[in-house]
Amino acid sequence: MAINETHPQHPNYAIILKERVVEQFFIRLDVVSHCAAELLIVSPVLGTLEGTRMTVERLRHVIHSHKIRTYLITRHPGDELTRGAPGHIPALVTLGKINDLEIRYNDFLHAKVYLCMCSDRQSSFGVIGSGNMTQTSITNNIEVGVMIKYSSQGQSLIDELGYWIKNNLRVRSKMAKPMGKYTQIGGIHGIP
Amino acid sequence: MEFREWFCLNNRESFIIDPKINETDAKYYFGRDNIKQKITRQLRYSFVGNVPKMLLIGQYGSGKTQMLFYIRYLLLNQPPSTLKLKPRVVMLAIEMKSKSNHQDLHLQLMEGIGKGVVTEWVRSISKKGLVLEEELRKIFSDENIVQALIKLIVGGMDYIAWRWLTGQDLSNKELEQLCVTRNLGQIGSGAMVDELVGIGRFAELLGEKIIFLIDEAERFLSVQNIDALNALEDYFRELSENRNDTIGFFVAGTASNLEDTAPFLHSDSVLTRMGKQNVVIIPPIPSLDDVKSFITQMLSEIIDQSQADKNIKDNSLGIPLATYPFDTDSFDLLCEYASQDSYKTIPRSIINAINECAITAWDEQKRIINSDIVNGIAPLVFE
Which domain, by its residues, includes B311? Predict the structure, then answer.
């Protein structure tokens, strides 16, 4: 069975990912980036993703060139968990250069959710699983996730996850960098 | 204090109206009273001796899905007096790919009704003491359909029967087991529509009226094969016929005008049968006053008015209740932004802008949304 192909006995909107979980999300994002309208990333820890097929620098380029409105929710750089993650601040600095990107902090965050909402809704998809957006999670750790495609019951799962991130999780998280030109550009709270 | 309490939201956690997430949001259709009136009028007329057959089109975010949910709400909670039976509302977002055809459509419509429901209907006839085969033959002229429906209540055969009824191809052995001579739809979509209309009649015997609410009809544009397009046109033509008085349908799709829908949806053969008065184009919100009316109606419904009034008084906010949590200037400013480009004056954008303004005010722990906040957010949404 080819990668990203639904298992014949599983619902046709869900695929279990056992290898390089977060990378598989970003590979698919790359494929649909021309019609991606919103990107929602919930990951307690971040990394620069060097050595993977979507480095944070490349992600910045994809978001910027396709004007993808992006919401990133992560932990504060001073949090106990992120202090030991060497790529967390560099990733925030790189992503913080994007106008169409909002960053929020929540130090209770443990969830890992990645959603891409497309203008032709059929192409929307998401991944929920154990993997942080770090190279260690992609290359070393044993992680598992489920990729949900926007078809049959997958539609309501993605819609509800998107609603939860945008309207529940965001208002429970502290603003670190607002979307667009509102307030200071490039200034990210918590980074000297 | 939570966001919802901060802005006195009425049993909800955001300003976003989305009946897919909050079931109770289906009752809302703010502003645009002319469209609401047209739909309710057509809904009332359409049940006089027939069923509704309507096409709703509008651009992305114009409120088509909300309208479908609103129609469902009306049918279930305030049904028109002309609807004498209990509505069995089947809502689905259609899925079509380049190789899809009438079989895929039929499968989705039948799955929307559900195997359990159809089986229960068949069983109910048996329980009434009627001779099932005789009753079925009164409705279905095709003996194959009769046999397949009977097998729905025969242990071990039900799944094969359902696969046949939903238009999936069976092996010769399975066809033999089912006592049918061919696959459904093997010679076109007519037999499938006959089956669906017959099932509608069957439902009527048991006091129910089937009404499909089909969303995302723009996906029909994905279909590439000419034979598939012709078969889909036949399917809709047959469903739109006057003689189909058992299966109602509302089809909603994204398109700027009728010509941008899938060719078979605006073909003469379908439109003349459906009736041009049953094509409703949902335009962007037309004027500044309409935007104001849309927003004030929305705020008055989703904000707990007594809590908001108390909040205004207790905190000396000095803003009118009608525009809460906006002050008068920021309210006017938002309406101006929303009306600048008629193409963007759509409910989804307006609602998003309100929600984002509120989240920004919440971030800054401001009790009201002022003009600075609107100036920061509205350009991101409307420009």
Answer: 3-11+286-382
The residue type at A103 = I
Has residue B265 been placed in a domain? yes
| Gap between the Cα atoms of B21 and B16, Å rounded | 10
What CATH number corresponds to the domain at position A41?
3.30.870.10
Same domain? B75 vs B146: yes
Q: What is the mean pLDDT of residues B44-54?
A: 91
Average pLDDT estimate for B93-118: 95
Residue with structure tokens 């992609």?
A: A138
Tell me the chain B residues in contact with residue A119 when contact means C-beta distances shorter than 8 Å: 60
Q: Which helix (H) or strand (E) holds B355?
A: helix B347-363
**Confidence class for position A180, pLDDT limits 50, 70, 90:** confident
Residues belonging to chain B with any Cβ–Cβ distance to chain A shorter than 8 Å? 2-3, 13-14, 16, 18, 20-21, 60, 93, 95, 216, 219, 355, 359-360, 362-363, 376-377, 379-380
Task: Yes or no: say if B212 and B239 are a contact pair by the CB < 8 Å rule.
Answer: no
The predicted model gives B264-290 an average pLDDT of 92
Give the C-alpha separation, B192 to B279, whole Å.
24
Task: Report whether A112 contacts A121 (CB < 8 A).
Answer: no
Tokens at residue B197, please? 């209309």
Domain that holds residue A131: 14-175
Q: What angle do CA B292, B72, A158 make, to 5 degrees?
A: 80
How far apart are the CA of B106 and the nearest CA of chain A, in angstroms? 15
User: Distance from A139 to chain B by nearest Cα, in Å?
Assistant: 35
Residues of A in contact with B93 (CB under 8 A): 155
Hey, which bits of chain B come out as E strands? Answer: 53-58, 86-93, 208-215, 247-254, 279-282
Tell whether the torsion through CA atoms of A147, A149, A152 and A155 is positive or negative.
Answer: positive
What is the domain count for chain A?
1
A contacts of B2 (beta carbons < 8 Å): 171
Buried b / exposed e over A128-151, threshold 16 CB at 10 Å, is bbebbbbbebbeeeebebbbbbbb
Last residue of a domain, one of B249, B282, B315: B282
Q: State whether the Cα torsion B340-B256-B353-A77 is positive or negative.
A: negative
CB contact set of B268 (below 8 Å; sequence gap of 6+) = none
Q: Write the pLDDT tens digit of every residue in A66-84.
A: 999 999 999 999 999 999 9
Helix B158-165 to helix B115-127 angle, to the nearest 10 degrees?
A: 110
Beta-sheet pairing, B279-282 with B53-58: parallel
Q: Which residue has the tokens 């401001």?
A: B366
Spell out which residues of chain B touch residue A152, defining contact as CB-CB under 8 Å: 95
DSSP symbol at A123: G
Is B21 within the bounds of a domain?
no
CA distance B89 to B117: 12
Q: Judge: A167–B219 Cβ closer than 8 Å, yes or no.
A: no
SS3 content of chain A, % helix, strand, coil (to 5): 35, 25, 45
Average pLDDT, chain B: 94
* Closest residue in chain A to residue B3, using alpha carbons only: A171
Query: Which H or E run contains A29?
Result: helix A21-32
